[in-house]
Design brief:
By secondary structure, this protein is an alpha/beta fold. It contains seven helices and eleven strands. Bound molecules: NADP nicotinamide-adenine-dinucleotide phosphate.
């Protein structure tokens, strides 16, 4: 079975580890190329965009891909839409992995907003110390709220032209643990967190820490989910793939 995994997430890497070495599967990992040092993969890896729906459709046909697995981030809406359209055009089976959203629980103080511009506004007129964990692609709107002091965290340093004026940068890659997140929030005097509703366990610890110390969170809602069936976890994807594979080879 020829498989293409659209990756860039913890789940995609988990899937790659589970499939590597399975002689029945010839799987390729595809990364957008956003990070300077991507997590090494146990599968052959291609890096960079395909050139929209046309490019991805051509790739699926030329490489005779049997199953396309979209295991990209819930906020990576464009590539998911492209995957849905290209799989349809190429007649390739499609599996979309969409991890469940985070939902608030007792003690959480979340303000839900639709996008980054609204998140910047929600921080209010009074200067605050903000832990901004949105990724470098989404920093620009916070330049419109330059009166806050930001602590930014992402895998690579963001380009200076998107960073708000008062910002400290921390380079880090998840998974994160609650005790360290709590220490970071307290040591930096953080008053509010801004995050996307990414879901998943790798970056959830900051929310548990915020709950435990009573910090408010500005939670950016997800873009609309694709209008195709989705699977919540790697185990579901593996079950579905294994069901399609020949037995005992
Ligand atoms: P996006 O806005 O949905 O995609 C923009 C373009 O990047 C796509 O049209 C495609 O280019 C290319 N692309 C995206 N993912 C790709 C992949 N896995 N392989 C090859 N090309 C890809 O995506 P994004 O939000 O920039 O995210 C880029 C990558 O970072 C994704 O792999 C995603 O899983 C990962 N990531 C994103 C976030 C986030 O918050 N957005 C967080 C963590 C990880 P072409 O049209 O030229 O094919």
């Amino acid at each position: 079975m020829n498989l293409l995994i659209l990756g860039g997430t913890t789940e995609a890497s988990e899937l790659a580890r589970a499939l590597a070495g399975d002689a029945r599967v010839r799987a390729t990992m595809s990364l957008a190329g956003r990070t300077q040092r991507p997590v090494p993969q146990p599968l052959p890896t291609r890096i960079g965009g395909f050139g929209g729906v046309e490019g991805l459709t051509a790739y699926l046909i030329e490489r005779r891909i049997d199953v396309l697995v979209d295991a990209t981030h819930p906020f990576a809406a464009r590539i998911t839409a492209n995957a849905v359209a290209a799989a349809r055009r190429a007649g390739t089976s499609l599996i979309v992995l969409l991890r469940p959203e985070w939902t608030p629980t007792v003690g959480d103080r979340w303000t839900h907003v639709d996008d980054m511009a609204e998140a910047a506004t929600a921080l209010g007129p009074v200067p605050r110390r903000v832990f901004l964990t949105v990724g470098q692609k989404d920093l620009l709107p916070f330049r419109a709220a330059p009166h806050h002091q930001y602590v930014l965290r992402s895998v690579d340093p963001p380009p200076p032209d998107v960073v708000p004026p008062y910002a400290e940068f921390i380079a880090a890659r998840g998974p994160f643990v609650e005790a360290e997140e709590r220490r970071l929030l307290i040591e930096r005097g953080i008053e509010v967190i801004v995050t996307k509703n990414s879901g998943g366990r790798a970056t959830e610890a900051k929310l548990v820490a915020a709950r435990n110390i009573g910090l408010p969170v500005v939670m950016v809602r997800r873009p609309p989910a694709p209008k195709v069936p989705t699977m919540e976890g790697v185990a579901d994807v593996l079950t579905s793939l294994h069901a399609a594979l020949p037995r005992g080879e």
